[in-house]
Specification:
- By secondary structure, the chain is α/β, with parallel strands linked by helices.
- The protein has two domains: 120 residues, Rossmann fold, CATH 3.40.50.2300; 183 residues, Chemotaxis protein chec, CATH 3.40.1550.
- It is built from nine helices and 13 strands.
- Strands 1, 2, 3, 4, 5, 6, 7, 8, 9, 12 and 13 form an eleven-stranded mixed β-sheet that branches.
- The longest helix is centred in the last third of the chain and has 23 residues.
Length: 324
């Protein structure tokens, strides 16, 4: 498991001026952003990257990326392909939307200059980090999930990468599970997502030679893991009567577009994503297999009312429990 449960977000940086790169890099580090950029420029390459399964919190775009004012044309293409991603436009001479056609200005969360990053900082906070996930909750989810997945795949080494926020709605892999999450202080969904063939190959490492697995076996493993995680979550966070919120009958449609690998819960709030890497100890040279876990609390979110059940170990230490 990662030694930290600080939640970051990944942002795609499309900026071609080297003289401002250190300023942007420092801003990202200070703002809990993991900055990534294409190895090769050009609109076609950028759109190819965005057409893949890469999950992001937003995009920093330079207005002249790819040529004079070419950034605006690229922004239109990005907005058509991934409209859920906030775009932050860096300009050369002035902040604000002056000189940008009105229909194009609506694509940007803010327009700023490298000389004054205060507008960008405020926009990042309101667009990407407008939902706070308590550190204790993130740590607890990671512990529950690693214990559940580790029990089902004991022949694997499991590492959790740094948790992060995503604004996109992309589904990773070919199979995912979906289960409702409901307590007095939160209500929404949890997803597990992975690649079918990769995960089947990983699961085969714990089977007898010649024993075949099918997609139904994969469904069973992921379904059991999902139930175990929800059971652990419920035991740790839902066995309390405190709090001011009660369950609501409100529902929103869940929209899934299989061709686009897209899922929407009717909310623009950033989702909490945890990424788990598996390696088969019997086949250490094989490529790692990933499972993505996402939480979307789109129906109720009041983390100030969260109460965590005490761990059994702490009850032994306090004297509340003793060994029989």
């Amino acid at each position: 498991m990662s030694s930290t449960s600080t939640v970051f977000s990944k942002i795609l940086v499309l900026d071609s001026l080297a003289k401002d790169s250190e300023t942007i890099k420092a801003l990202c580090e200070d703002s809990a952003l993991i900055a990534i950029r294409p190895q090769e420029g050009g609109a076609a390459n950028v759109l190819s990257i965005l057409g893949s399964n890469i999950d992001l919190g937003g995009i920093m775009l330079y207005e002249n990326y790819g040529g004079p004012m070419a950034g605006l044309a690229l922004a239109r293409s990005i907005n058509d392909l991934r409209p859920e991603l906030p775009i932050f436009l860096r300009r050369d001479r002035q902040s604000g939307n002056a000189g940008i056609p009105e229909k194009d200005a609506a694509m940007f969360r803010c327009a700023y200059t490298a000389a004054d990053l205060s507008t960008l900082r405020a926009s990042l906070d309101s667009s990407i980090f407008n939902r706070v996930y308590p550190t204790a909750l993130v740590r607890g989810i990671a512990e529950i999930t690693q214990a559940s997945l580790g029990a089902l795949l004991p022949h694997c080494d499991l590492v959790m990468e740094t948790p992060y926020l995503v604004k996109d709605r992309i589904i990773f892999g070919e199979v995912f599970t979906l289960i409702g999450i409901e307590t007095n202080w939160c209500r929404g969904y949890m997803m597990l997502q992975t690649g079918e063939s990769d995960f089947l190959g990983l699961a085969m490492g714990d089977r007898a030679p010649g024993e075949a697995l099918t997609f139904r076996d994969l469904n069973s493993i992921l379904g059991e893991a999902t139930n175990m995680i929800w059971g652990g979550f419920k035991s740790r966070y839902a066995n309390h009567t405190g709090g001011t919120n009660v369950a609501s009958s409100v529902q929103v449609p869940i929209i899934i577009n299989h061709q686009r690998r897209f899922i929407s819960f009717g909310s623009e709030d950033p989702q909490l994503c945890l990424k788990y890497q598996f390696r088969d100890r019997k086949n250490p040279d094989a490529e790692p297999v990933y499972v993505y876990q996402r939480f979307v609390f789109n129906l109720n979110w009041s983390p100030e009312d969260m109460v965590e059940s005490p761990a059994v170990e702490s009850m032994f230490e306090s004297g509340e429990l003793e060994l029989f």
